[in-house]
Amino acid sequence: MSDNQSWNSSGSEEDVEPRDESGHLVGIVDLSGVLSKWTNYIHGWQDRWVVLKNNTLSYYKSQDETEYGCRGSLCLSKAVITPHEFDECRLDVSVNDSVWYLRAQDPEHRHQWIGSVQLHRTIREGRREKAGIQGTIFIPQPLADSGYGSESSLRRHGSTLSLTSATSGFSATSTSSFKKGHSLREKLSEMETFRDILCRQVDTLQKYFDGCSDAVTKDELQRDKIVEDDEDDFPSTRTDGEFLHNNHGIKEKLFQSVSPKGINGIDFKGEAITFKATTAGILATLSHCIDLMVKREDSWQKRVDKEMEKRRRIEEGYKSALNELKKKSHFGGPDYEEGPNSLINEDEFFDAVEAALDRQDKIEEQSHTEKIRLQRSSPVPPGDVYSSIGTHRFSDKPRTQSSPALVISAPHDVHRFSSEVEEMVQSHMTYSLQDVGGDANWQLVVEEGEMKVYRREVEENGIVLDPLKATHSVKGVTGHEVCHYFWDTTYRNDWETTIENFNVVETLSDNAAIVFQTHKRVWPASQRDVLYLSAMRKILANNENDPDTWLVCNFSVDHDDAQPSSRCVRAKINIGMICQTLVSPPEGDQEISRDNIMCKITYVANVNPGGWAPASVLRAVAKREYPKFLKRFTSYVQEKTAGKPILF
Ligand code: 9N3
């Protein structure tokens, strides 16, 4: 129980039929506390000390002023308590046509009040029935300044309401449970109260008009001209100034012949005045609402302006900080954007990479369609760079039986990296060809037609090294052809889309070279370069039934002519393109055509990015780029070899 409300509830023996000094039954569930009470249009909601006792709800100006007597009371026997539909704090207590609009400080307090009033009534009813007492209705007699907390009191005091002050002096003076800054909500609540009052008044007026029309038809108008003794409520001293919005200067002459409580016991003049007062109140509250909304909008606008200014300053700060950073020598170097101190987070990095890749795709697509268009308009003449394949020297190499992976290299293939190449080739033949389909360590990341791409997630010191293995079956081409187009840098730009430029640093032999390439920068990651030895080999099978193997290995090496630069991060690669040709026998004595051949490819890739890069980004890029490369490259080989002699 809060400090401004108190219970006097007990189930003790004394309370069975207790009576106060004046013989009234005293509280079983008495309750008193502060409630906001709707007073009038001028004062709106006011905090009042409300007491629930002896089946009566009374209110006082404040708790300290209870000895001066209550300002109004309602007998609860016939009272109707209505919790407000939307305002969770409000409860309206009405008896006949008297309504008290009340507001508790919060929904819990409202609940307590409603519960208490109901409990009070139930207990009283029970006692009354027992005692055979008939329910009586207590009509409140408001005190002089009790205001207009009910419709009846409104009507009673309609004439004393200074209507001019109602408009000019209307201000949010309510000291109710509404908190500061909630004045708009307060006003809206007032509007709801007005709406309720207005509805009742419209009903009353309607009743009056119905009565009028009855009276006219029954020719009873004369009988209704009896002057009743209710003059106190409508002093004759009333002046024009007391009328609100009577802009037309028309007084209710029309109805002056009718006594104040002429038709259906309704005092039309009083009703008309209070009706005007209500509408005046509504208008005043509305204009107040508008004022508040305008003020609120102003304040929001100011806040928006302030935020915009703040944003502008931050953006400026960011720009100048970035400029400062750019001036520093390490800008653009390997340690700048990447690494845990990167200025952008992984998500942003990832988005940027994706966007850049999409842009690249679009450009590639455009150049591809352009190329096709040009090819169609001017077909490639015979003997172009691609048609030399039939004369490749590997095509007539002797076939020798040897150990599992016998590497044949002619004397002119020998160079200073020969042993490294042999080692790499052996390693590919032993490990790379192993099937990973059923290996739980390898996850299948992409499967499209014959192509299957697997990877193993491996990280070393936070650097993603995920080994990749892909298998593919390509119809109509041989392993030799596949390796030829993969190894020979002449064709590199036809299928490779991730390279910005490349150059052969050193030609080691007819089938081995050292290549330097810079990969296209995928903003905002630093650009990567790779320096690798690329060698092509044919490995003869152990027996007649097994196919020979064609293989290209690209693995990182060092070279004095291609030192790492500050512009790029040097990535390290170890890649193998391992191919075997399967031939299905042709029908009859026909020659083997491209329809009879198929190349089984095993592609393995180990890329060490050479520095920190976000794992999620690298993995996403790898998942996207490898299948794309495999499809594009193998289609390219099919395209290039179609209609040409088969290079076994
Ligand atoms: C990737 C290189 C990087 C990243 C490669 C290099 C790569 C792949 C294939 C060479 O098969 S190849 O030898 C054909 C000749 O070019 C070959 C792939 C991922 C991202 C797909 C794993 C280095 C560039 C890089 C690394 C990290 N850029 C940004 C972050």
3D structure, described in words:
With 648 residues, the protein is an alpha+beta fold. Helix content is 34%, strand content 23%. It has 10 helices and 23 strands. It has helices at residues 107-131, 151-157, 163-168, 183-217, 268-327, 346-377, 418-432, 479-487, 492-495, 615-641; strands at 5-9, 29-40, 44-53, 56-60, 72-75, 80-83, 90-95, 98-103, 261-263, 266-267, 406-407, 443-448, 451-455, 459-460, 463-464, 468-475, 499-509, 512-519, 528-540, 549-556, 569-570, 572-583, 597-608. Strands 11, 12, 13, 16, 17, 18, 19, 20, 21, 22 and 23 form an 11-stranded mixed beta sheet that branches. Strand 6 (80-83) and strand 7 form a beta hairpin. Helix 6 runs parallel beside helix 10 (615-641). The radius of gyration is 48 Å and the shape is elongated. It binds ligand 9N3. Residues 496, 499, 519, 522, 525, 528, 530, 554, 571, 573, 575, 605, 607, 609, 613, 618, 621-622, 625 line the site of ligand 9N3. The site of ligand 9N3 has 19 residues, from strand 19, strand 22, strand 23 and helix 10.
The overall pLDDT, averaged over residues, is: 76
Helix count? Answer: 10
Q: Give the number of DSSP strands.
A: 23
Amino-to-carboxy terminus distance: 97 Å
The helical percent reads 25-40%
- Structural class label: alpha+beta
Name the bound molecules.
ligand 9N3
Strand content: 15-25%
Largest sheet: 11 strands, mixed
Name the descriptors:
648 residues; alpha+beta; 11-stranded mixed sheet; 8-stranded antiparallel sheet; elongated; binds ligand 9N3
